[in-house]
Write a structure and sequence with these properties.
Blueprint lengths: L12 E3 L2 E3 L6 E5 L6 E6 L3 H16 L8 H17 L1 H12 L3 H22 L6 E2 L6 E9 L2 E5 L5 H14 L3 E5 L6 H13 L6 E3 L4 H10 L5 E5 L2 H13 L4 E5 L5 E4 L6 H13 L11 E5 L3 H11 L21 H16 L3 E4 L3 E2 L7 E2 L2 E4 L6 H4 L6 E7 L2 H9 L3 E2 L1 E5 L3 H10 L4 E4 L14 E2 L2 E2 L12 E9 L5
Parallel strand pairs: 7-8, 7-10, 8-9, 10-11, 12-13, 12-20, 13-18, 17-18, 20-21
Antiparallel strand pairs: 1-2, 3-4, 5-6, 6-24, 11-23, 14-17, 15-16, 19-22
Helix pairs in contact: 1-7, 2-4, 2-6, 3-4, 4-5, 9-10
Length: 492
C-alpha cells in the first residue's frame, strides 16, 4: 500500500508518569480509516482510570512539583517539549495519518508544526504575563494576581488530535496546572505519544496524564469528577451541552466548550479577486476532508455572479479527489471511520431528497481498499431551511446559496444556531466593515478564509461554544484571579 513502515504503537494509558493498562484490563481496536487495518489495541479507560489520573494530577498540583516552578523554568521545559515534537515530527505525522486519515503532507506541515508552535508560544508567554496593582488610595495596596486553577480535565476531538490538545494543554500547563487529557477514541495515539515526550522534556510525573476511552465511560467521569476544577472540551454541540450539565451537577467546575459550526462564506459581486475567492471556498471546505468545525460549508454567492463562480469552482474539484493519505501528493484523504462515512452519506442523500442540485461528487469511493473515502461534493440551489444548510456535516460537502443584497445575506447567514466563523469578499471597505460587524461569529475573515495565527483567539458565538482558545485570552480559562488587599498605615 505504501513505502512507509508502519510503527508499533503502545495503546496503554499514561498515568502518573507510567504506561498502564486500564484497571479493568479492557481494550478496544484502533482501526485505521486509510485501509481498515487494526493499528493496535488501546486501553479502554473508565471511571477507575480517570480517578487514578485525577488523583495523580491533584497530588502533583498540591505538592507544587510543577506549579511551584518559576515561570522561567516552566518556559524552558515547554520549549523543550515543543522541540521534541518537531524532532519526532515524521513519526507523529505518520501516526496521525494512520489514526484518523488526513494526508500525511498536512499532518506534518500543519498539525505537527502547529502543535509545536502552540506549546512553544505559551512557554515563551508565561514569564511575560504580568500581574496588576489596582489604583487604590494610598492607604491600601491591592494586588491582582493569577493563580493556576488546579486540575484541568481536557477532552479533545478526532479531527485535529495534536492541535486541539496543544491549544488546551499548552496554556493550562504554562499557567501551572495539572492536566488529565481524554483523547477521542477515534484518534488516541498521538496524545499518548505527546505525554511521553512531555515527560522526556522534564514535565514531572503526574502533571500531564492521558486516559483513552469512550465518552460515556471516560469522558463523563472526567466531567463529573469532584476533584477536577476545570473541564475544557472541543467537539459537537450536543456533547458540549452535556458537559455543561455535568459541570453543574458535580462541583460547578469551570466548563469551556469549543463546539460546532456552519460557517457562512459570503462572496459579493464586487469581490476583488474572484479566482482567489473560488480557491479559498473550495480549498477550505475540502481541507481535512471537511472535518473542521470552522469549515465554510455555507457558500453565499451574489446572484449576478453565481454561475461564473460555480463554473470556476467545478474546475477545481478534480484536484481534491480522495487518494491514499500516505502519498505525499494527496490533498484529501480518508474520513475518520465508517460511522462518519455513513453520516456524511446520509447528509448527501438528504440534500438530494430535499431538492438541492448535486453539481459534483456525492459518492463513497475506495482509492484504497477497506478505507473510508467520499468524493468532494457540491450542492447548488440550497435554501437555509434544508438539512444540509442547517446541520454540521463534518465532511467534504459544500452547500451553495444565493443572495441579492447585504441585508438579505446577513439575515440568511445569521439564521443558524452556530456562530463560529464567517467570511466576506468585497472591495467596498464600508460593506466589509458593516457586514463583518453584523455577522454573529467569533471570527470574520475579509477577502480570505482561515488565515490564522496563535496570537488571535479562536471560538464562537451562540451554540458554537464559550471561551476562547489561543492567544493570551486562553490564560483566562486556566487561572483564578485573586485580589490581595493590604492595608497601609503610613508612618509619615
Amino acid at each position: 500500500m505504501t513505502t512507509h513502515s508502519i510503527p508499533t504503537f503502545d495503546g496503554r494509558a499514561l498515568i502518573n508518569g507510567q504506561r498502564v493498562a486500564a484497571r479493568s484490563g479492557a481494550v478496544f481496536d484502533c482501526i485505521s480509516p486509510v485501509d481498515g487495518r487494526v493499528l493496535t489495541q488501546v486501553a479502554r479507560g473508565a471511571e477507575a482510570d480517570i480517578d487514578a489520573a485525577v488523583q495523580a494530577a491533584r497530588a502533583a498540583f498540591e505538592d507544587r512539583r510543577w506549579a511551584g516552578k518559576p515561570p522561567a523554568a516552566r518556559k524552558r521545559i515547554l520549549i523543550k517539549f515543543a522541540e521534541l515534537i518537531q524532532v519526532h515530527g515524521d513519526e507523529l505525522a505518520l501516526t496521525e495519518t494512520l489514526d484518523m486519515g488526513k494526508p500525511v503532507k498536512y499532518a506534518k506541515g500543519v498539525d505537527v508544526h502547529s502543535a509545536a508552535n502552540c506549546i512553544r508560544w505559551y512557554g515563551e508567554a508565561v514569564d511575560k504575563v504580568y500581574d496588576e496593582i489596582a489604583p487604590t488610595a494610598d492607604t491600601a495596596l491591592a494586588l491582582i494576581t493569577r493563580e493556576p486553577v488546579g486540575v484541568v480535565g481536557v477532552i479533545v476531538p478526532w479531527n485535529y488530535p495534536m492541535i486541539m490538545a496543544a491549544w488546551k494543554i499548552a496554556p493550562a500547563l504554562a499557567a501551572g496546572n495539572s492536566v488529565v487529557l481524554k483523547p477521542s477514541e477515534k484518534s488516541p495515539l498521538t496524545a499518548l505519544r505527546l505525554a511521553e515526550l512531555a515527560l522526556e522534556a522534564g514535565i514531572p510525573s503526574g502533571v500531564f496524564n492521558v486516559v483513552p476511552g469512550f465518552g460515556p465511560e471516560a469522558g463523563s467521569p472526567l466531567a463529573l469528577h469532584m476533584d477536577v476544577d476545570c473541564i475544557a472540551f472541543t467537539g459537537s454541540t450536543r456533547v458540549g451541552k452535556q458537559i455543561h450539565v455535568m459541570a453543574g451537577q458535580s462541583n460547578l467546575k469551570r466548563a469551556w466548550t469549543e463546539l460546532g459550526g456552519k460557517s457562512p462564506n459570503i462572496v459579493f459581486a464586487d469581490c476583488p479577486d474572484l479566482d482567489r475567492a473560488v480557491e479559498a471556498a473550495v480549498g477550505s471546505i475540502f481541507f481535512n476532508q471537511g472535518e473542521s468545525c470552522n469549515a465554510p460549508s455555507r457558500l453565499f454567492v451574489e446572484a449576478s455572479i453565481k454561475d461564473a463562480f460555480l463554473e470556476k469552482a467545478l474546475v477545481k474539484v478534480p484536484a481534491y479527489q480522495p487518494a491514499n493519505p500516505l502519498d505525499k501528493n494527496t490533498v484529501m484523504g480518508a474520513l475518520v471511520d465508517t460511522t462518519q462515512l455513513h453520516t456524511v452519506m446520509r447528509y448527501i442523500e438528504s440534500g438530494k431528497a430535499e431538492g438541492a442540485k448535486l453539481l459534483a461528487g456525492g459518492e463513497a469511493v475506495q482509492p484504497v481498499a477497506g478505507g473510508c473515502y467520499v468524493q468532494p461534493t457540491i450542492f447548488d440551489g440550497v435554501h437555509n431551511t434544508m438539512t444540509i444548510a442547517r446541520e454540521e456535516i463534518f465532511g467534504p460537502v459544500l452547500s451553495v446559496l444565493s443572495f441579492t443584497d447585504a441585508a438579505d445575506v446577513v439575515r440568511q447567514a445569521n439564521s443558524s444556531v452556530y456562530g463560529l466563523q464567517a467570511a466576506v469578499w468585497t472591495r467596498d471597505l464600508n460593506k466589509a466593515h458593516g457586514v463583518a460587524r453584523a455577522l454573529r461569529a467569533g471570527t470574520v475573515h475579509v477577502n480570505q478564509y482561515d488565515e490564522d495565527d496563535i496570537t488571535v483567539p479562536f471560538g464562537g458565538f451562540k451554540q458554537s461554544g464559550v471561551g476562547r482558545d489561543k492567544s493570551l485570552h486562553a490564560f483566562d480559562k486556566y487561572t483564578e484571579t485573586k485580589t490581595t488587599w493590604i492595608r497601609i498605615d503610613s508612618p509619615i
